Amino acid sequence: MLKSLVSFAIMLSLLGTFFNPLNMFSEQWAMGSPVTAKEIKNNALYKKIKAYNKEHKIPAIDARIDNIWGAIPGYNGLAVDVKTSYNIMEQDGHFDVNQLVYKQIPPDVHLEDLDSAPIYRGNPQKPMVALLINVAWGNEYIPEILKVLKNSGVKATFFFDGSWVKKNPDFAKTIKQAGHEIGNHAFSHPDLNQRSKSETIRELKKTNNIIKRTLGIKPEWFAPPSGSYNKTTVEIADQLGMETILWTVDTVDWRKPIASEMVRRVVSKVKNGTMILMHPTKPVAKGLKTMLSGIKKKGYQVGSVSELMDEERIDVPSVPGIIKHGL
Prior knowledge:
Mean pLDDT: 88
Low-confidence stretches: 1-32, 321-327
Number of helices: 13
Oligomer: single chain
Strand content: 5-15%
Structural class: alpha/beta
Number of strands: 12
Largest sheet: 6 strands, parallel
């Protein structure tokens, strides 16, 4: 009789372990459900993290076409990774904003989803500025400009005139080897607004081909010479796999302004998403260092067109020792 009672007790104990609600919750958490035994004990902590996320969550911004600015890229949103943050804090049971882990939220509409349209700026919520350097002349100032960019830790986008690349392959290779982005600037610096469809196709294809032969890359971005284009120009660039890039702020360096005045004017106009047009000219060579310093002092990062068009946020908080979550 005693032996039977002991066996029955053991069986009840095993059944109790199997059907223990806390164990079930733990299994649910392991499967991705937002419930654990520890969460039950620290429910207030979990709720506080969720409430913080609700209050501070930043929604993603879809890419769109603006009547003035043309195509504008999207920008990732930002939210607290509630589950991971809770796992970090639940041992102490205390809410600590410095231990929150964040995840980026991609937009629903991306730049590639839009109809072909020129791009004049990056997303107005992204605290970054891009440098557009159109190259068809001015070789003597390229070394100094590259030196300033290197010392400043900045990568720019150089738009190459195809005929220039043909005449100056070594300069083109030097710029590419320095890590800068290369774009298409047509072949003979034409006024594409006045060119036929076939002529435009020839100008862009010819430049892509010579850049491919010389540098082994195919440009993703196209900058029409003198900013002259029409709807057909943009459509042809799109068909060739390139977005058409214009600018937000012009240095007007070809007018040979005093470098300090050029810098002051440009820096005063810089905002989120600004794209700055320049050429390898003397004013740029003399003023670029000061210009970059002024832009950075205003709190902006400086980079290439691709970096500016990227939806990735550049202001994601990080937790020491924790890898911040991506998309």
